[in-house]
Amino acid sequence: MTNTISALILAAGKGTRMYSSRPKVLQTLLGEPMLLYVYKALEPVFGERIHTVVGFGADQVEAAFPQRRDNFVVQAEQLGTGHALQVAWDKVAGSGAEYCMVINGDTPLVTTEAVEKLISRAGRADLAFMSINPPDPAAFGRVVRDKDSLVKAIVEAKDYDLSVHGPVTGEVNAGIYLLRLDAVGPLLDGLRAENKSGEYYITDLVGLAVERGLKVEGVSCGADVNLMGINSPRELISAEQTLRRRIVDDFIDRGVMIHNPDTVIIGPDVSIEPGAEIFGHVEIYGRSEVKAGALLGSYTYIIDSTFAPGCEVRQFCHVEGAEVGPDCQVGPYARLRPGAVLRERSRVGNFVEMKKSELGAGSKASHLTYLGDAEVGPGANVGAGTITCNYDGKNKFRTIIGEGAFIGSNTALVAPVTVGRDALVAAGSTITKDIPDEWTAIARGKQTNLNRKMKKS
Ligand code: UD1
Ligand code: CA
Predict the structure, then answer these.
(1) Ligand 1 pocket check: which of 8, 34, 78, 81 to mutate, most ligand atoms within 8 Å of Cβ?
(2) How many CA atoms within 13 Å lie on the side-chain side of 405?
């Protein structure tokens, strides 16, 4: 049945209650935009058949998901969730599908299982929706049923009138709907903005469908907090905590040793192999990969980086876009910036910064060093306080350090420059010329000793 269902995400709203200039669906949880989580939950079921209604900050949403642009529909004025559906209708109905699942874009905790559950429990309903019984029904649309428990309508909290709609039951609308397109299409023109918000509500379709004698089904999911929409910073933070725990627990169950797990944050696209070990107060984001036998020390921030088996990142490191090879050692207090590559058994120590640079197998830069646009061969030693001077104010230049070279402490390597294989640079040198293989270079002021106790004549 699922290949005759397409999906539509409503993501055009501003998210006024977030107090942010960023569209709500781009607010992040664990470093990734809210909307990504909705795509992740829908993708296994709908594949490419997912349309998205964008509006407020549409450019920003398109920039965040360029590969999905073709399936965006722009709702220039945000006149309500029902209006969003009206705007997207032609695209949805023209896709050849029999049903469309419509989902609020501010529901990042939704799971593929929940989506499948609605499909399987909807039966042959013309309009089905998911309902929940949260601890606090707050601003959710309330589900109204008749004495036989049949759904009569969804009434928004603002418009709920006890004398008309009866006592509140606690059952509310989760914002996920399954619509049979042929049946629901004719109802769209019947939507009116005659309510407290002056908006066209998708939820009014329920009452309209009941009036027309269509088959309407409210699929109850009990107290499932995963279906709660996010409207405020507090709700976002609480959803983020739930997601964080879900991801960390999942890795622990699969055999990753995570110490002090309450303080570990792992993004949804991070992969970690069983047998890796992580200490608390660590954040790992983006497309990072941690292999079996890698060890990540505490107070470390990681994004888009890979860690090979046997490597060890000690405490207090900042690692972005880096590749740490097998059995390498990093830190404590190291900073690896994009393009930093550590080949096997190499070591980077405290207060060393690397950017677009490669450190060869077994090489070391143990203290107080900047390697930018540099290529260090295997078995080299980069002494304390070595700086590659890679930038002249306009352009960047490369530094090459050959296999087995020894760079003495407090050396400035003014790029472009090459230090040959097994060459030696004396401490305190400022190197501006290439050094041939196996030669020694010394480039510093000569020392003069003056006797402080010379007799005055
Ligand atoms: C909506 C439901 C409510 C339900 C709740 C569940 C309506 C009228 N109410 O309320 O019954 O309990 O979700 O979380 O639908 N959007 C657009 N275009 C618009 C307006 C909104 O695309 O013109 C998008 C928003 O970006 C958001 C989603 O629709 O992702 C829901 O809108 P929101 O304003 O958050 O609705 P709620 O008040 O939460
Ligand atoms: Ca909402």
Answers:
(1) 81
(2) 31
| C-alpha 273, offset from chain centre | 19
pLDDT in tens, 34-92: 999 999 999 999 999 999 999 999 999 999 999 999 999 999 999 999 999 999 999 99
Answer yes or no: is 233 within a domain: no
What's the predicted TM-score (pTM) here? 0.93
Binding site membership of 404 for ligand 1 (Cβ less than 6 Å): no
Q: How far apart are CA 165 and CA 154, in angstroms?
A: 10
Question: How many domains does the chain contain in total?
Answer: 2
Is 140 near ligand 1, meaning CB less than 6 Å away? Answer: yes
The torsion of the CA quartet 298, 303, 305, 308, rounded to 10 degrees, works out to: 30
In eight-state DSSP terms, residue 76 is S
The set of catalytic residues is: 367
Look at ligand 1, atom 29, and give the residue with the nearest C-alpha. 10
Find out whether 285 and 268 touch, Cβ atoms under 8 Å: no
Residues 222 and 325 in one domain: no
Separation CA 275–CA 257 (nearest Å): 7
**Does the Cβ of 156 fall within 6 Å of ligand 1?**
yes
**286 and 217 share a domain?**
no
- Which residues of the chain fall below pLDDT 50? none
- The answer to whether residue 168 sits within a structural domain is yes
Domain hosting 42: range is 2-227
CA-14 nearest atom, ligand 1: 26
Q: Is the CB of 173 under 6 A from ligand 1?
A: yes
**What are the distances in angstroms from CA 344 to CA 39, 42, 319, 425?**
37, 40, 17, 24
Task: State how far Cα 74 lies from the chain centre.
Answer: 24
